[in-house]
């Protein structure tokens, strides 16, 4: 299995990863986070070159909202059901701040990413920012959730 790539600054990522992070950052503007004030944006790159963005959507009837990653993944599949997802970038920002804040995929999103990998029979690279403010490129959801729940678990 490929290893994680960890860099200290976004400029140390390859150009494709940097562009995807910028798309995820642009998606922050459309996050609906009136309760947590923690806005999350994501961008998924498909193997046909399309980029689908997502942003967190909170709801007063918690936990009825959705994370940015799942918004992007479900939208990608709804719009392009036969196109593989190659990678996804995740960004976060606290309301009123200009700098990005660290955020990694939650457990539910890792599980959904794993299901997408299994369905498309191909890994999805994940780009996110660690609590140490480093950028991480994970080679797959499986690398983030090695003991995930799959159809074999049923």
Automatic annotation (TrEMBL):
Annotated ranges, domain CMP/dCMP-type deaminase: 15-152
CDD domains for this protein: cytidine_deaminase
Record-annotated membrane-spanning stretches: none
Keyword field contains Hydrolase: yes
The family this protein is said to belong to: Belongs to the cytidine and deoxycytidylate deaminase family.
Keywords for the protein's UniProt record, in alphabetical order: Hydrolase
Keyword Nucleotide-binding: no
Molecular function terms, GO-annotated: cytidine deaminase activity
Enzyme Commission number: 3.5.4.5
Name assigned to this protein: Cytidine deaminase
Pfam families on file: dCMP_cyt_deam_1
Recorded superkingdom: Bacteria
Family annotation (InterPro entries): CMP_dCMP_dom, Cyt/Deoxycyt_deaminase, Cytidine_deaminase-like
């Amino acid at each position: 299995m490929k290893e994680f790539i960890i860099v200290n600054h976004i400029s140390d990522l390859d150009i494709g990863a940097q562009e995807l992070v910028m798309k995820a950052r642009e998606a922050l503007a459309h996050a609906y986070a009136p309760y947590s004030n923690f806005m999350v944006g994501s961008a998924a790159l498909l193997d046909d070159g399309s980029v689908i963005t997502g942003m967190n959507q909170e709801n007063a009837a918690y936990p009825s909202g959705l994370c940015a990653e799942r918004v992007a993944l479900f939208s990608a599949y709804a719009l392009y059901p036969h196109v593989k997802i190659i990678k996804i970038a995740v960004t976060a920002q606290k309301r009123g701040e200009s700098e990005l804040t660290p955020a990694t995929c939650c457990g539910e999103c890792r599980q959904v990413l794993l299901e997408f990998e299994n369905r498309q029979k191909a890994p999805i690279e994940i780009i996110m920012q660690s609590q140490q403010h480093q950028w991480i490129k994970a080679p797959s959801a499986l690398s983030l959730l090695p003991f995930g729940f799959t159809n074999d678990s049923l």
